Amino acid sequence: MVQQRGYAICTQPRSGSNLLCQVLSSTDQLGRPLEYFNGPGRRALGLPDFPDAPKLQVEAVLRLGTTPNGVYAVKLFASQFAAFSRRVRWMDLLPNLRFVYLTRDDLLGQAISWARAQQTEQYRSTQPAKRPAVYDADLIRSQLMAVVRECAQWEAFFARTGIEPLRIVYERFLEDQSSYVDGVARLVGIENPVVDQRRVDLVIQRDASTEEWKQRFRLENGDPNVMDDPFPSLPSLVRKVRSGLGL
């Protein structure tokens, strides 16, 4: 009997996770990592009957996200984790779970990518853009703070639980995909996985406008005398905690 084991790719939006997931899936040995805890997203991308119920989504990880060798995989953002973890103890339902943590060095580039995707609704290079992207400093700033919050949430989660994930930086992954694929394979006891590049059709979406927006944003918002606060004030945080505890 094949022993089920798998991994969760913990990350933030626009971190390059779609490319990483497609590369891993192409091996047919390392699961099929997708956002199974994102019902609307799965329905929009070809699974019209995909459920919203968290327990059914966990079942989908073990059914749709598993390769014949018993390896399952799922991708999730901290915001998704925070939402569904209130309703299901998902980690208790996934056997022999390991963790991969994907980040990106270029946080401003990540925020710009997120802002553009929200405007165009083009989240993958294989999707058509529904409308043009327009420079919006407020939107970029908002997404930059959202990226930073997601990173902080994951780091706090790993620190609190003692979980040591396999860490992958997107820019390093682009330089040497095979070594990181091998690293994921070692997590789940697989040897010599082979990436099928014919099944990898995603390409990098950033272009000349990305650098132009970066320079403009820093020109307008790069005052080094100002410190950003991406987190709620202490009184606000206390109120949220008390509310969550029913106090």
What attributes does this structure have?
247 residues; alpha/beta; globular; disordered C terminus; four-stranded parallel sheet; Rossmann fold
Task: Summarize the structure in short.
The chain is α/β, with parallel strands linked by helices. The protein contains eleven helices and four strands; from the N terminus they run E-H-H-H-E-H-H-E-H-H-E-H-H-H-H. 30% of the residues are buried.
How would you describe the shape? globular
* Gyration radius, in Å: 19 Å
Give the N-terminus to C-terminus distance in angstroms: 49 Å
Strand percentage, roughly?
Answer: 5-15%
Average pLDDT number: 90
- CATH superfamily placement: P-loop containing nucleotide triphosphate hydrolases
Poorly predicted runs are: 233-247
Number-wise, the strands total 4
Work out the count of structural domains. 1
Tally of contiguous helical segments: 11
Strand order of the largest sheet: 2-1-3-4
Quote the CATH topology: Rossmann fold
Q: Main β-sheet: number of strands, strand sense, barrel status? A: 4 strands, parallel
CATH class equals Alpha Beta
**CATH architecture assignment name:** 3-Layer(aba) Sandwich
The ordered H/E elements are EHHHEHHEHHEHHHH
Which bin fits the share of residues in helices?
A: 40-55%
Secondary structure class reads alpha/beta
